[in-house]
């Protein structure tokens, strides 16, 4: 069961698993599409509606995907979906996933935490009540850890304090109401795992980039979404789109902000690895799901180099940082567990970036340049009325 299966990571994952013979269902309330409608955004790639997508997949692959359109915060709906599909693994992508969206105003901060935290509690209860053997694979983010001045471990850290030693959850320091919703999810999951003896895996995912997977490339109607606006667009995808349309890449502040990244093709393989290696009952596995780490300045430099090779002339500008974050800091996060289980990472450098830029150039007429500049300032988090008036 792929919750959030109409979204960027979820759609690619649903097709990847379906192609490999897993019986797949998608649960999604399509709220991501209505957020675009509310705010006047669009995916760079022309995505089809979810029913059309699923029909096309059946036509192209011969494989069915069961579709449940509804909200995981609606327990009656979720329970009915669990009873009908009886999942052995439930991959939970279905959350509001933008930090800037969560910082727009009070209403969206509350929506983000209610939607994400309540939704996850409902998923945990649905497993307990309807499918106690089901493995819950939940998407968290590397952003939960913040940027501590020590190495970031994979989920747990062994600490010796006043002569006693224990292995404890690694400290979390979310940098937005969105990231904090994920920290709360992790705490709730760990509690339920121990209290009810269920199987859970928490994936602290890095920033995902790229558009294609083998399956989404099988037909134009299966194309994935690609966000470039300042609210939902993530760093590398946004920079590539800026470079492709001749807009300078907008580096926030000093550009030393360093994060973990991974290709969407690696995301889908990591989820398959997690599905194939269920946690034992009562244990929450935690993996750091990223393959390489880069600073924002390094990203801009790599795109500049790749852009020149495909006939572009990328430029970089510094814009005031709308976020509250450290712009120069120590960052060294561990990420060996998924590789130990067989992940062979795809590198960002080289031909990949040139390919992505070429793909983006084919959609360049769809870009609305007004959506490119940063729009949400952490310190000015305002009321809804003010934001709409802007
Ligand atoms: N994209 C990234 O770079 C990235 C990085 C780290 C972690 N993540 C996490 O991975 C997950 C998927 O991210 P994405 O980029 O695919 O996001 P996305 O917004 O494209 O997809 C999320 C999907 O979940 C659905 N959804 C949201 N709330 C729901 C609810 N209450 N009930 C049912 N469906 C609901 C949305 O309609 C959407 O289709 C998120 O949890 C996100 O926090 C993403």
Please render the helix and strand layout as text.
Blueprint: E1 2-3, H1 8-19, E2 24-28, H2 31-39, H3 50-61, E3 65-69, H4 75-85, E4 89-92, H5 99-102, H6 106-130, E5 135-141, E6 156-161, E7 164-169, H7 177-196, E8 199-205, E9 207-209, H8 235-244, E10 249-252, E11 258-263, H9 264-276, E12 284-289, E13 292-295, H10 296-309, E14 316-319, H11 337-340, H12 351-362, H13 384-389
The structure holds nicotinamide-adenine-dinucleotide.
Nicotinamide-adenine-dinucleotide binds next to helix 1, helix 2, helix 6, strand 5 and strand 9.
Explain this structure.
The protein has 390 residues and is of the alpha/beta class. The protein has one domain: Rossmann fold, CATH 3.40.50. Helices cover 39% and strands 18% of the residues. It has helices at 8-19, 31-39, 50-61, 75-85, 99-102, 106-130, 177-196, 235-244, 264-276, 296-309, 337-340, 351-362, 384-389, and strands at residues 2-3, 24-28, 65-69, 89-92, 135-141, 156-161, 164-169, 199-205, 207-209, 249-252, 258-263, 284-289, 292-295, 316-319. The strands form 4 sheets. A 7-stranded parallel β-sheet has the order 3-2-1-4-5-8-12, with helices on both faces. Strands 9-11-13 form a 3-stranded mixed β-sheet. The chain has a two-stranded antiparallel sheet with strand order 6-7. Strand 1, helix 1 (8-19) and strand 2 form a beta-alpha-beta unit. Helix 4 (75-85) packs parallel to helix 6 (106-130) and helix 8 (235-244) runs parallel beside helix 10. It is globular and about 55 Å long. It starts with a strand and ends with a helix. It binds nicotinamide-adenine-dinucleotide. Nicotinamide-adenine-dinucleotide is lined by residues 4, 6-10, 28-32, 71-73, 93-97, 115, 119, 139, 141, 205, 207-208, 234. Nicotinamide-adenine-dinucleotide (NAD) binds next to helix 1, helix 2, helix 6, strand 5 and strand 9.
